[in-house]
Specification:
The protein is an all-alpha fold. Helices cover 58% and strands 2% of the residues. Helix 5 crosses helix 7 and helix 8 runs antiparallel to helix 9.
């Protein structure tokens, strides 16, 4: 993301609850990992103890003398395929609480990360798809990418110089964490929507994200209604939005 040409205007956080939600996400993620680890250890110990108790199955001599029965013939009813894992369509239509299936199949982020960002967007599909589209074009979802001669960091390419106040208000300390980096971008996008009046379906929003609102305003006043960057991000946004809408309607 290029340098912001309006210093001092990004120091107010538009969503005071965002920092709390991020902290809740980090705490829940740590707790979930501890539970998963404990469950795996318990299962391994139980399996080991069961193996010791049962031992290797052996037949009695009488049973050993008997011929083995012929294998039973399988019937179609006995070979019903197992139920497949839920798709994004299932999640949208039935159960949005699941975090083990990605919301966007073509976004190279783990399902849990996608759901965390979706929740930071207050489950607003437009804002979520806009954030994902920017992440794709800024970094191809690379969390530790450093660009602009070391000035921009993370998958959203946040320039900390212009977002220090915002980061402090949100409790963001690590821009290489994709969720924390997305939190800054989401708050910035909300602010840009208010400043420009542009929606996620408007190239002006992505021009402002890339050039700063002052740079975008100058470009628009000069008759330049779009840029190669804004056109590319907008096309990706619409692609992601179609995928989300397909899932919701399926």
């Amino acid at each position: 993301m290029d340098k912001d040409t309006r210093p001092g205007t990004w120091r107010d956080c538009n969503d005071p609850n965002l920092a709390k939600r991020m902290e809740d996400y980090r705490r829940k993620r740590k707790a979930r990992r501890r539970r998963q680890t404990a469950a795996r250890i318990t299962a391994l110990v139980a399996a080991f103890l069961l193996g010791l108790a049962v031992g290797r199955y052996t037949r009695t001599p009488a049973q050993a003398d008997k011929p083995e029965p012929p294998p039973a013939t399988s019937t179609p009813a006995a070979t019903v395929p197992a139920t497949s894992e839920p798709t994004a369509a299932d999640l949208w239509s039935n159960d949005r609480s699941r975090i083990d299936t990605p919301l966007l199949d073509h976004a190279a982020l783990e399902p849990e990360t996608q759901w965390a960002i979706f929740n930071l967007c207050s489950q607003d599909a437009d804002l979520f798809c806009a954030t994902m589209a920017i992440a794709y074009h800024e970094s191809r979802f690379t969390p530790d990418l450093v660009g602009d001669d070391g000035k921009s960091v993370g998958m959203m390419q946040i320039n900390a110089k212009w977002h220090t106040g915002r980061m402090e208000a949100l409790g963001v300390t690590d821009l290489t964490d994709p969720v924390q980096c997305a939190a800054v971008a989401i708050d910035y996008l909300k602010e840009l929507e208010g400043l420009t009046g542009a929606s996620p379906d408007d190239p002006a929003l992505y021009m402002a994200y890339n050039m700063g609102p002052a740079g975008a305003r100058k470009a628009l006043e000069a008759g330049k209604e779009t840029t190669a960057y804004s056109e590319a991000v907008l096309a990706t946004y619409r692609s992601y939005k179609e995928e989300m809408e397909w899932a919701a309607d399926d």
